[in-house]
Amino acid sequence: MGKYEEITHARNVLGIGEYENLNNIKKKFKKLIKQYHPDICLDDKEKCRKKAEDIIASYKLINDYCSNYRFSFKKEEVMKYLSVEELWKEQFGNDPIWSNNFDKNKDM
Known about the structure:
By secondary structure, this protein is an all-alpha fold. The chain has helices spanning 3-14, 22-36, 45-68, 75-80, 84-92. The longest helix has 24 residues, at 45-68. The protein is elongated, with a radius of gyration of 22 Å. Residues 102-108 have low confidence and may be disordered.
């Protein structure tokens, strides 16, 4: 199995999509490990143990991938992830008509 297939399997085990942030990955891991931990799981203990091992291995693989991923800090890449407010500010700046700083009570 290639690296992409391993990561895809790990994503499926953890129930994460193609685009995810580290906080959500961690939340999904914690939720799953609580559900399948052999000391807590109400199903077959051996089945739960194997599932928990798969969850832990998947989380380690995804976490390792994310830890070693090279992020781009180019303007084009940063612009993709601006919030609506940041994008609006970037586009209109302090323009008195379009910016959020516009005072509606001011006489024009």
